[in-house]
Amino acid sequence: MKNYFSSFFFLFCIILLLSEETHAQWAAANSTIQYKNVYALAFNGNNLFAGTGDASIYRSTNNGSSWTPVNNGMNYYETIQAFAVNDEGIFAGTYSNGVFLSTDNGNHWTAFNNGLLAPSIYGGMAIPEITSLAFSGSNLFAGTFNNAGVFLSTDNGSNWAAVNSGLPSTFVFDLLTNGTDIFAATYDGVFHSTDNGGSWNSSDSGITDNYVTFIALNGTNLFAGTYNDGIFISTNNGINWNAVNSGLTTKTILSFASSGSDLFLGTVKGVFHSNDNGANWTDISSGISFPTINTFAVNQQYLFAAVANSGVYRRPLSEITSIPVKNPTTIPGRFALFQNYPNPFNPSTTIKYSVPKKCMVTIKIYDVLGKVLETIVQEERAPGNYRVEFNAINYSSGIYLCIMSAENYLEAKKLILIK
Question: CA-CA distance, 107 to 58, in Å (whole number)?
Answer without folding.
Answer: 10
